[in-house]
Amino acid sequence: MPELGEASGDPGAKTSALRAAILVRGIAIESVDDLDGALGTSKGCVRLLNGLSPATEFTTLVHEYAHELLHRADDRPASRDTRELEAEAVAFVGGGAVGLDTSDASRDYIHLYRGDREALSGSLNRIQRAASMILNAIGGIG
Q: Which of 35, 58, 121, 123 is deepest in the core (most CB within 10 A)?
């Protein structure tokens, strides 16, 4: 399998603000040395791989937080592909809003889960809602 792109840039203090927003919602964050190839996971607790670059740490936290916001309720999409597409689209928006270059990483990840224009369009309201909640929680953009 080809290597996936990686986010780049520096989110600065936005990572601390994001961590605080996650914790305020009662979601624990754990740092671990191995996640079986994943950068992060979420199941009521966000687990994050140690040693990530600042940009990848931020976008992975956004991705996993999006899962917590979007995929723990009754309206959770049945398809894992849709859930991953939604979480990564939120990470793309969040990363871009704080000045990170996430285009290659998000594009590759979304394609990995069969994301296309139609799938994104079908989830656009959910993506926008989660991205807005996260950006508001971390103090907006910039």
A: 58
- Size of the chain, expressed as the number of residues it contains: 142
Q: Give CA–CA dist 5/103, Å, rounded.
A: 8
Ranges of beta strands (E only) in the chain are 28-32, 40-42, 45-49
The answer to whether residues 58 and 18 touch, using CB atoms and an 8 Å cutoff, is yes
Digits of tens for pLDDT over the chain (142 positions)?
456 678 889 999 999 999 999 999 999 999 999 999 899 999 989 999 999 999 999 999 999 999 999 998 888 888 898 999 999 999 999 999 999 998 777 777 777 777 788 888 889 999 999 999 999 999 865 4
Q: Quick check: 11 and 54 in contact, CB under 8 A?
A: yes
Is 26 in a helix, a strand, or coil? coil
Q: How many CB atoms lie within 10 A of CB 32?
A: 12
Amino acid identity, position 42: S
